[in-house]
């Protein structure tokens, strides 16, 4: 019985390279990427596999570009990536997307530039070459009887790096602990000291882009909405009491059309 490796005999390319196929023209507005990929397939004659996690809509107008240029454009618009795979497989078999992804991720993670694996069970050899400037010419390579060359383009949602995920989790824990300590420390400060801290914090936020500021504000609000009902009720009572006090003292700005009643 052939091993899973034999389905990828002589995988020779995991690089984003140009492909001698038909030209591509697109004029689409807010079209799902799966439909855009389908149009590229129809126009160029190539096979494209789409990662289910690779989502987004495309608005673009391009004329007479090759497949690699088209894929560069549509993937960059949604922060996706793409790979070109050339491999030899049994002529009567199909390769599933999960198999393609597993093979790509496993092989690309190896700290080597070349790999040859002999499978004594099927009497075949798998060759993997990494970091080549372009795809090698496979037309002159002989295949075992019953095997054929296949080329597939795969659009991927980049896998999060494990180290980056661990760092993000560590940052969340670190900042959360710091915020808890800050809350206790500020309770022992004077009003003037607390106001200075909040002023500095707001000044720091104003150096961010409007999109980042609004995203952080939205997340703050979501966190408040998701508090337990008891905490949420107490928070609203605190806000109402504070706003009422500030309005009575004339300190609250008239943002929402409220009138100060003294």
Give a structural overview:
The chain has 262 residues and is α+β, with helices and mostly antiparallel strands. The protein contains 7 helices and 8 strands. The protein has helices at residues 33-44, 67-76, 97-109, 162-187, 191-205, 210-225, 229-249, and strands spanning 9-13, 24-32, 48-50, 57-65, 81-90, 114-119, 124-129, 147-156. The strands form 3 sheets. The chain has a 4-stranded mixed β-sheet with strand order 1-5-8-3. Strand 6 and strand 7 form a beta hairpin. Helix 1 packs antiparallel against helix 2. The longest helix has 26 residues, at 162-187. The protein is elongated. The N and C termini lie far apart (88 Å). Residues 1-20 have low confidence and may be disordered.
Overall mean pLDDT score?
78
State which percent range the strand residues make up: 15-25%
H and E string? EEHEEHEHEEEHHHH
* Global morphology: elongated
Measured between the Cα atoms of the first and last residue, the distance is 88 Å
Radius of gyration: 29 Å
The main pleated sheet reads as: 4 strands, mixed
Adjacency order of strands in the biggest sheet: 1-5-8-3
What is the total tally of β strands? 8
């Amino acid at each position: 019985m052939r091993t899973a490796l034999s389905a990828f005999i002589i995988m020779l390319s995991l690089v984003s390279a140009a492909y001698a196929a038909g030209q591509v023209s697109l004029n689409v507005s807010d079209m799902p990427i799966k439909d855009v990929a389908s149009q590229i397939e129809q126009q160029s004659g190539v096979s494209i596999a789409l990662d289910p996690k690779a989502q987004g809509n495309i608005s673009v107008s391009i004329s007479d570009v090759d497949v690699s240029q088209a894929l560069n454009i549509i993937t960059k618009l949604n922060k996706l990536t793409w790979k070109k795979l050339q491999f030899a497989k049994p002529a009567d078999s199909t390769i599933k997307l999960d198999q393609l992804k597993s093979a790509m991720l496993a092989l690309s993670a190896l700290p080597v530039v070349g790999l040859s694996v002999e499978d004594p069970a099927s009497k075949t050899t798998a060759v993997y070459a990494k970091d080549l400037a372009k795809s090698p010419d496979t037309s002159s390579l002989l295949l075992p009887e019953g095997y054929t060359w296949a080329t597939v383009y795969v659009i991927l949602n980049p896998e999060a790096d494990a180290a980056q995920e661990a760092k993000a989790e560590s940052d969340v824990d670190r900042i959360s602990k710091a915020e808890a300590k800050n809350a206790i420390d500020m309770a022992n400060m004077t009003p003037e000291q607390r106001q200075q801290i909040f002023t500095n914090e707001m000044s720091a936020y104003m150096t961010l882009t409007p999109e980042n500021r609004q995203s952080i504000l939205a997340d703050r609000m979501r966190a408040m909405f998701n508090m337990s009902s008891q905490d949420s009720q107490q928070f609203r009572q605190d806000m109402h009491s504070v706003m009422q006090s500030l309005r009575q003292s004339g300190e609250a700005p008239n943002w929402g059309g409220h009138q100060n009643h003294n």
